[in-house]
Amino acid sequence: MTKIAEKKAFLDDVCRETPEYADLLTLFRELYVTVAGREGETGISFSRTSHLTAEERMRFGFPLLAPEAMTVDPARATHFLDSVIEVMTRVGRDGKGELSLLRQALHGGGLDLPRLFRGCLAREREAIVEASAVCCVSPPLLEFVLETALRTALEEFAESVEPALVEGWKEGFCPVCGSRPGMAELAGEDGRRFLSCSSCSFSWPFTRIKCPYCGSEEAEKLSYFEAGDGPVRVDVCRSCSRYIKTRDSRKGHAGVPLDAEDLATMHLDLLATREGFERGK
Question: Quick one: signal sequence residues (predicted)?
Answer without folding.
Answer: none
